[in-house]
Design a protein that fits this description.
35% of the residues are buried. Helix content is 55%, strand content 13%. It is built from seven helices and six strands, in the order E-E-E-H-E-H-E-E-H-H-H-H-H. The chain has a four-stranded mixed beta sheet with strand order 4-3-5-6, sandwiched between helices. Strands 1-2 form a two-stranded antiparallel sheet. It is of the alpha+beta class. Helix 1 packs parallel to helix 3, helix 5 packs antiparallel against helix 6 and helix 6 runs antiparallel to helix 7. It has two domains: 96 residues, Glutaredoxin, CATH 3.40.30.10; 102 residues, no CATH class. The radius of gyration is 21 Å and the shape is elongated. It starts with 16 loop residues before the first strand and ends with a helix. The chain binds glutathione (GSH). Glutathione binds next to helix 1 and helix 3.
Length: 225
């Protein structure tokens, strides 16, 4: 269980700055001792956005998986009237506040640490841009498509692997494995070593997703017991 926000500043205690989120106003920077819990689930991209901020800030936040534990979703519905995730539960010992909306959560987390959220294009976005850029170039220069596809698929694999690490999500691990399979297959074909039909990539994706789903279910069952 998380023990709050270790690096929170204790300045402005009399007159806290405020950080508005989803119609509610929360004092920031937040006091030490606050307990944070994130309601969400692995494959939810908005939850991953929040997890990246949590990792970047080095915070300890309890994860409450609404898929593995449907009663967590009921808690959300009771508190907010809807079950959409992510939602950050902020418990300062006397009051519990519920903060929905990934953008508001990220802004609040950074503000709670007296830090600005990162601006400008992230490395991830640059990687996505580069990956699709290479695919587009390959369409115009089919004579170079082998190396271009290998590069694009390798970038995709790296990006998904980074996502998998940051979010501890099996789903991203499965996507990374598929990208990697594609990169190796295209490289082998380009070098004239072996020709692997493209639909093998679809088989690989289905297999990887099935394994990811089994792993997620086993993980959820372990959490429940
Ligand atoms: N604008 C919201 C979007 C949140 C959202 O669409 N969450 C999805 C999951 S990624 C959701 O809760 N869908 C309903 C469900 O999973 O039952 C945010 O930024 O947090």
């Amino acid at each position: 269980m998380a023990e709050g926000v270790p690096k929170a500043r204790s300045t402005n205690e009399g007159e806290p700055e405020t950080c508005a989120g989803a119609g509610a106003t929360f004092p920031t920077p937040y006091r030490l001792g606050v307990k944070l819990a994130l309601y969400g689930y692995d494959a939810c991209p908005y939850c991953q956005r929040v997890r990246r901020a949590i990792d970047d800030l080095g915070l300890e936040v309890e994860e409450r998986d609404v898929l593995a534990h449907p009663e967590r979703r009921d808690e959300l519905r009771q508190a907010l009237g809807r079950g959409t995730v992510p939602v950050l539960r902020i418990d300062d010992g006397s009051t519990v506040r519920w903060l929905p909306e990934s953008g508001a959560i990220v802004a609040w987390l950074y503000a709670s640490q007296g830090r600005e959220p990162p601006r400008g294009p992230s490395l991830r976005r640059l990687a996505t841009f580069l990956m699709w850029g290479l695919v587009a170039v390959a369409l115009f220069f089919p004579e170079h498509e082998g190396p271009l596809f290998v590069a694009a698929l390798s970038i995709g694999a790296g990006r998904s692997l980074a996502n998998a690490r940051a979010t501890r999500s099996w789903l991203h691990g499965a996507i990374a494995a598929t990208f990697l399979f594609g990169a190796v297959a295209v490289l082998l074909q380009h070098l004239g070593i072996v020709r692997i039909p493209w639909w093998y990539g679809v088989y690989a994706l289905v297999l990887a997703l099935a394994l990811a789903s089994v792993a997620a279910r086993l993980g959820a069952r372990r959490q429940r017991s």
